[in-house]
């Protein structure tokens, strides 16, 4: 627990009583009860009034104070108070001593209950304002403090910084949860030391907020950048080096907003914009809201387009280098009326993944590909087609069954369908991805590892899961540099390794005759690119096949 939170908890546990006045009340209550008992004939039922000062003393002074009050009250109505005032018959010692004992037992019991209630209340108050995982203030306290500062009108400037621990989920996934948690606490500790004038909050499981009274936005942004620079050196958690990647956003009262709740909303929008534009630190600007409105209206348009069949498919031929024949095509999503759409397909796919529409788009592609394959089959054209998959499909338990239903509905031979997957998809959930691959493979569907050579684990997948993949695809970035002698040697080694594992290799993005000749000399199997053909709509592809004279 940080120092400021310790002070808060201590304050929450304090009861604000006027102790001198409380003592006067207790003494007066005992005196009044004794007087009433004496005037009504002696020690009788009126003595029950003593429970009022007893319980009150326990509440104010605790069990020790209650015991003292119990003894004083017991003596006050004990040896000097007769059983019968009229006949002056005094109480035997056993009676008033027993009464004192009863008072003490009651005080201890009630005092224990009150202490238990107070501890429970204190714990609930701590939970309300403390992030129990880190010991720092939580989002509730951040919101309360910001609202209080803004409402007080005491400050000319209040800047708020939000930092997001970008790679904490990756640490959680590939190291463990405990290490990710310790890394977050390490970041909080760094922030507390760095921003001595501010208050630090663990706003979420990966976001930190800092309130800086009397700081302007530019001053806060500069400090945020400097702080991020201090986090770039790896930290050691249990002797394990951990890299912390942090982004930040800044908002200022009253420059950007005068309402506390709206400040928080705009701060969230600023950090979203920071993550989207790949900046280290962003200062809120009204244009951020305008851009985000455009972004979300684009998502609405995307959903509308999906529901109203505004997409089509284009097919890019794959060429066999040995005989210059078309051995298949890759299905690519396109707008039906591209002139009316400002959003590129790559941007569309990215937004669809973010918004959760990618499954619907992929299923649309699979269904429409199956329909087209049926039409080609009816024309006597046997054309294998490959389709790109995203990670979302492989996490969907119903995906394999959907593919099976589509193939059955349109009578498509599974051997003519191919799914392309990148290494990134496998990394996200390797166990589940490979399980889905095997199910698809068992159906007879071909599998292709896309962008081969671009990741760190490509060789690993080649060795461990070579039996799953039928094709490997070298990405365009490598092909663009094939004229370099060393790069050519690397590509040739990749081709040889592919053949060694019984697979075929496809080179993507081939655009020049020199690239074609070099790939031929390296014994590449298939190529795909603008040198032979751009992506073609179905009718154009049929004409291309008829006129083909490569």
Automatic annotation (TrEMBL):
Coiled coil: none
Record-annotated membrane-spanning stretches: 20-38, 50-76, 96-117
Alphabetical keyword list: Membrane, Transmembrane, Transmembrane helix
Record's keyword annotation contains Hydrolase: no
Domain EAL: 295-549
Alphabetical list of SMART domains matching this protein: EAL
A GO term, aspect molecular function: cyclic-guanylate-specific phosphodiesterase activity
PROSITE patterns cross-referenced by the UniProt entry: EAL (PS50883)
Pfam families xref list: EAL
Name of the protein in its database record: EAL domain-containing protein (Putative c-di-GMP-specific phosphodiesterase class I)
